[in-house]
Amino acid sequence: MRGHAEEPHTPTPGMAARTAGWIAALVVLALLAWSYPFAVGAAAVLAGVLFMHEFGHFAAARAVGMKVTDFFLGFGPRLWSVRRGETTYGLRALPLGAYVRVIGMSSSDAVEPGDEHRAYRNKSYPRRLLVVSAGSLMHLMMALVAFVALHAVLGAPALEEDRWQVAEVMSQRDGVALPAVAAGISAGDRIVGVNGTLTEDWSVFVSEVQARPGERVLLEIERDGTLLDLETTLAADPETGRGLLGVRAGQAVTYETAGLPTAIIRGFADLSGAIADSVRGIWSLFANFGDVVDRIVSPPGDPSANENLGMRPLSVFGIVDLASDTSWGWSERVLMFAIVNVFLGVFNMLPVPPFDGGHVAIATYERWRERGGRGRYLSDPRALAPVVAVVVTALVLLAVGLLYLDIANPIDL
Predict the structure, then answer these.
(1) Among residues 153, 147, 146, which one has the least CA distance to residue 267?
(2) 270: buried, middle or exposed (CB in 10 Å: 19+, 13-18, 0-12)?
(3) pLDDT, tens digit (0-9, with 9 covering 90-100), for 133-190
(4) Using CB atoms within 10 A of its CB, is residue 331 exposed (0-12), middle (13-18) or buried (19+)?
(5) For the chain, how far is it from start to end, CA to CA, in angstroms?
(6) Distances in whole angstroms, Cα of residue 140 to Cα of each of 102, 274, 312, 336
(7) C-alpha distances out from residue 129 to 57, 101, 169, 365, Å
(8) Integer Cα distance of 27 and 33 in angstroms
(9) Sign of dihedral through CA atoms 162, 167, 169, 170?
């Protein structure tokens, strides 16, 4: 009001505490980013994936006229929030997921009379299906973009038969300093010659190195299509007297790019193949659950825990641990990102609550009860509470078990 002098704003103890908390959190994040840059980057990617999943629900709900009141990353105590229009956006303390609140998701939700026409429960069956499946559709869209980028920009990785490349560079073995790191050899390099001898065959390379303990050798390296010459002095194995360089081999990988139209076609083909693989993988998880439990309860260092890697599930920690391997390039990491998103999208459509597929099943059941011109039918969410409790408990136990498995018996590719 004109002529009314505003009182000076005095910070409250609560505001000061929140400000101090944010400063402390930023300091911790900075220290983590300095010490564990890849882990922090992986956490940021995970947060982005969760955000995009919920954004799919949010955008679909808004598009079909539903009212969204909350859009939060995390659960538990609120750290920060801001209201824009009819929706509150914010962050919560526990980074265990994200959620969007749409009014009237069940018959027991209280809705203002003026908003009843915008409630989820009063929208048509196709619109409800779109909203509850939008999170999984967003995962598939992210995977498709990743597949296309892989083919068009980064190059899709493919194994080459009968060719090897450096998979790991070691600085020492059994207390003996190895020269590979100091020589400048990197994972992904191809050592194609030693002192003029062609070493595209791994056995030839091993023979050439072992025959020259303590000698200075010239290594011909192929790196990103360019030939380099590196000189180094080989170490000597104190037990056998053989020469040592300090590299481990893996099958050679080539990267092929394509024009955008071809990349899009290949991206859709990869997406359909990944969906089929995810369906088979989920079926295998349930059909061979006893084998999964045996792996989870295996003692640390048990080699049987990693037999048949095609049936070896991973936790988030295991995925990050694999992707942080120095032998992986950005093509492999983007491919992993795409495959994980496809799996999340498919797994999330399991027809049991609290998965989005459970909401699809409920909406479909309600639509079936309305057949023949019957009135609107709304299911009772209380009847499904025991199912939700069992599923959530099973997921938590599985997540903890897989985390133990990935720590106790990590995959060593």
Answers:
(1) 147
(2) buried
(3) 999 999 999 999 999 999 999 999 887 877 888 888 888 887 788 999 999 998 888 9
(4) buried
(5) 70
(6) 22, 10, 23, 13
(7) 11, 16, 51, 12
(8) 10
(9) negative
Nearest to residue 406, comparing CAs of 293, 315, 285, 344? 315
Round to whole Å and give the CA distance between 100 and 34: 33
Phi/psi of residue 70, nearest 5 degrees:
-140, 140
For 216, residues 6+ apart whose C-beta sits below 8 A from its C-beta are 231, 232, 233, 234
Q: Give CA–CA dist 177/160, Å, rounded.
A: 31
Nearest to 143 by CA among 312, 345, 366: 345
Give the model's pLDDT for residue 302. Answer: 81
Give the model's pLDDT for residue 25: 54
Burial label for 73, CB within 10 Å (0-12, 13-18, 19+), is buried
Tokens matching residue 330: 């950005």
Encoded tokens for 96: 């265990």
pTM: 0.78
Q: CA geometry: angle at 114 spanning 112 and 118, to 5°?
A: 90
Is residue 249 within 8 Å of 313, Cβ to Cβ? no
* Interacting residues of 304 by C-beta distance below 8 A, sequence separation 6+: 294, 295, 298
DSSP code string of 291-356: HHHHHHTPPTT-GGGGSSGGG----HHHHHHHHT-TT--HHHHHHHHHHHHHHHHHHTT-SSTTSH
Q: 212 phi and psi, to 5 degrees?
A: -125, 55
φ, ψ of residue 374 in degrees (nearest 5): -70, 160
Estimate the crossing angle of helix 385-408 against helix 289-296, to 10 degrees.
50
How far apart, in whole angstroms, are the C-alpha atoms of residue 105 and residue 110?
A: 10
Q: Using the structure block, give the residue that is written with the tokens 């990935």.
A: 406
Its sign, for the CA torsion 222, 224, 228, 230, is negative
pLDDT confidence tier of residue 6, bands split at 50, 70 and 90: very low
